[in-house]
Amino acid sequence: MTRRKDPGINGSRNHIVIDEMTQVVKNRPKAAYNPHKTVETIKLPENVKAQLLSFVRHISEMYNDVPFHNFDHASHVTLSASKLINRINRPQGVEYGPDGKPGSSTLLEIDSATFGISSDGMLQFAAVFSALVHDIGKG
Questions:
Q1: Could you tell me which residues come within 8 angstroms of residue 63 by beta carbon, excluding any fewer than 6 positions away?
Q2: Were 44 and a residue from 11, 29, 48, 122 both cysteine, which residue would form a disulfide, CB within 3.0 to 4.6 Å?
Q3: How far, in Å, CA of 119 to CA of 105, rounded?
Q4: Is the dihedral of CA 77, 81, 84, 90 positive or negative?
Q5: Is the confidence at residue 33, as pLDDT, over 70?
Q6: d(C-alpha 72, C-alpha 91), whole Å
Q7: What is the pLDDT of residue 56?
Q8: pLDDT of 62-76, one tens digit each?
Q9: Residue ranges covered by each domain of the chain
Q10: Residue 14: phi, psi to the nearest 5?
């Protein structure tokens, strides 16, 4: 990589742009990881389900009826994001016991193997939600 002078970042010293990067999103505490809390095991109250359905319906109405950037496409991307999150939450190379609980692997090892994503429900939600809304208003 070549270094360049950029007086706009760090004055006038030489640097690689990646030198300027820092982690801005902090993960939640590692102990929060629970491999048993899944879409199948968490039960939402009926009024919350109705509100969520209404909200998604409203989002669908914000999409334009065009050949590609439409709600069908957003649904496919959302499903893909959800499946990827599920794959991350159950990383390969981690030993699970017959009951689905970690076998010889600790929860901390699982969290580390997933870069903290497995213990951060808000980050998982943000990834799936952003997939749902990523093309609103595009034509």
A1: 69, 70, 71, 74, 135, 136, 137
A2: 48
A3: 15
A4: negative
A5: no
A6: 29
A7: 92
A8: 999 998 899 999 999
A9: 27-133
A10: -75, 145
| Phi, psi angles (nearest 5°) of residue 10 | 55, 45
Mean pLDDT, the chain, as a whole number?
Answer: 75
Residue whose pair of structure tokens reads 């300027």 in the numeric block? 20
What is the distance in angstroms between the CA of the first residue and the CA of the last residue of the chain? 38
- Specify the range with the lowest mean pLDDT, choosing from 35-44, 60-69, 117-126: 35-44
More confident residue, 69 or 5: 69
Residues 23 and 112: beta-carbon distance below 8 Å: no
Greater pLDDT, 113 or 134: 134
Handedness of CA 121, 124, 129, 134 (dihedral sign): positive
* Whether 89 contacts 115, CB under 8 Å: no
Half-sphere exposure (Cβ direction) of 13: Cα atoms closer than 13 Å: 5
Q: Beta 14-15 vs 4-5: how paired, if at all? A: antiparallel
